[in-house]
Amino acid sequence: MAYALLVLAAALVVVIFELIRSLGIYGNLRGNHILTCPENQQPAGVRVAAGKAAIASLAGKPHLQLSECTRWPEMAGCGQECLPQIEQSPKDCLVSILVNRWYEGKKCVYCHKPFGEIHWHDHPPALVDEHRKTLQWNEVPLENLEQTLATHWPVCWNCHVAESFRRLHPELVTDRLRH
Ligand SMILES: [Zn+2]
């Protein structure tokens, strides 16, 4: 009896370990990734079938597959030769990590408040271009991410809202900065 319990406990530990490992795989693979398309050597935004990959890893057969790409549908049916880039370092091409890194140690260009830890579900930070037009990340096409990071400045949510209002309703705003 005691032996059977021991075997059961050992089996449970293995199952839990495998589940945690596959959850880790899922966590690293889900979300938008940015990589270099081997076909044209240009940035492309992709999503990986993360659930499938996690389940496949449980079955001991790791299998990576794209579920979306910014170059589809024109390039649909491509050989998905970009996948090794994700396999090698999934976190390095994960958009959320790249964007978080971009805000690290930076301050809002308007109010100079440091960003600290980013909460994407609640008042997420935005960015501003050289024409002082602020925008949110969902307005940035994935394939332009690298270029956007190089040409824009970080803005906090409050300043983004204020600046958007100022831009859309200049007649309603008394600009304190002008004085
Ligand atoms: Zn600000």
Instruction: List the helices and strands in order.
Output: HEEHEHHEEHEH
- Give the count of structural domains: 2
Number of strands: 6
What is the first-to-last residue Cα distance? 84 Å
Radius of gyration: 22 Å
Major β-sheet profile = 3 strands, antiparallel
Query: What is the mean pLDDT?
Result: 90
**Total DSSP helices:** 6
The percentage of residues in β strands lies in: 5-15%
Shape: flat
Q: What is bound: which ligands?
A: zinc ion
Structure description:
The protein is α+β, with helices and mostly antiparallel strands and 179 residues long. The protein has helices at 2-29, 50-58, 83-88, 95-103, 145-151, 157-168, and strands spanning 32-36, 43-48, 66-69, 126-128, 134-135, 153-155. The model has no long low-confidence stretch (mean pLDDT 90). It has a three-stranded antiparallel β-sheet. The protein has a three-stranded antiparallel β-sheet with strand order 5-4-6. Helix 1 (2-29) packs antiparallel against helix 2 (50-58). The protein has two domains: 1-93, no CATH class; 95-179, no CATH class. The structure holds zinc ion (ZN). Zinc ion is lined by residues 108, 110-111, 113, 155-156, 158-159.
